[in-house]
Amino acid sequence: MTSLYVDRRGVTLKADGEALVFHENGERIGTVPLAPLSRVFLRGDVTLSSALLGKLGERGIGVVVLSGRKAVPTMLLGRPHNDAARRVAQYRLSLDADFCLRFSRAIVEAKLRAQADFLAERRDSEPRSRYLLTLSLKRLASSIAAVDEQRSIASLRGLEGAGAAAYFEGFADLLPERLKFSGRNRRPPRDPVNAMLSLGYTLLHAETVLALYGAGLDPFVGFYHALDFGRESLACDLVEALRVEVDQHALMLFRSEKLRAEDFSTTESGCLLGKAGRARFYAEWEALAARLRKLLAESVSDVANAIALAGAVDAPCSPPLDTEWANEPMDEAGNGSAGDDDGF
């Protein structure tokens, strides 16, 4: 399955049998078969016919509209998963403080370990950065070792933040100096690397939301990220451990000069990737997107199994993966024995 990216002003998309047809200025300019599509991403002034929207929905093909210069995502979805009992169980467990803490420990540890694995791999092949990466890895190791000791989600967030600071210090040293990356910033991103990361994280988040809907889970009700109006909190939970995939991709694009500082412009709205750069970005993104969908399918299956194993409902789902922590009892200090299980 693949994605279609449409970033061209004034194009109209229509359905013609089992194909998606492009029209511009009243003329037919291209055709794409519907069969291999799993996602359609739209940016710019693009028009879709209602017949095409119906066909995309029937086939479960998600449509993601990236609006404005900041590419704010809006999603159009097909029919959701039929198993509403799974969502009821999810809602119940979101109110279970013990379950949420165990889940959150697994999320934070998986994220920290993914960051550490990435920096360790780079350290072995980057003599120039070896010293700084070693320091970052020591700090990450300290954070990982402390995950099981955390008695609240608030303290886990502090641990995650400390790990992120260590990680991005090491990550910055891997990037070309001309990019002047000094750490993570957003809303708006103020440099090319952060603009690249923000765009990648946005697309990853959209893929996560679609995967959760497809599995019958509610993206808005999370266990680590609390309820917040308009925020897909469960999607935010699952994105955490996969951010490093986007980071590696960004590093590759800048080091290979498939993206350069000249591809970005800075305005009052922040640092933005221009149209020519976006075309190269989308061409490179699809290979990563296929890997992300596979990883997300595994993560979403783990979540569904964790909900079932917690005993809230006998939800039909995939064969159980490594989610033994879901039923681990807490001791009086709030500690479970499954904090070292990064089953996500």
Taken as a percent bin, the fraction of beta residues is: 15-25%
Category by helix and strand content: alpha/beta
Which stretches of 5+ consecutive residues score pLDDT under 50?
A: 312-325, 329-344
Can you count the helices?
Answer: 9
Main sheet specs: 4 strands, mixed
Backbone CA Rg: 21 Å
Q: Could you please say which CATH topology of the largest domain applies here?
A: Four Helix Bundle (Hemerythrin (Met), subunit A)
- Please tell me the CATH architecture of the largest domain by its name: Up-down Bundle
Explain what the structure shows.
The chain has helices at residues 50-58, 84-93, 97-125, 130-145, 153-174, 192-214, 233-239, 243-255, 275-309; strands at 2-7, 11-16, 19-24, 27-33, 37-43, 46-48, 62-67, 72-76, 264-267, 270-273. The protein has 344 residues and is α/β, with parallel strands linked by helices. It has 2 domains: 2-76, Ribosomal Protein L15, Chain: K, domain 2; 84-327, Four Helix Bundle (Hemerythrin (Met), subunit A) (Up-down Bundle). The strands form 3 sheets. A 4-stranded mixed beta sheet has the order 1-5-7-8, covered by helices on one side. Helix 3 (97-125) packs antiparallel against helix 4, helix 3 packs parallel to helix 5 (153-174) and helix 4 (130-145) runs antiparallel to helix 5. It is globular. The model is unreliable at 312-325 and 329-344 (pLDDT under 50).
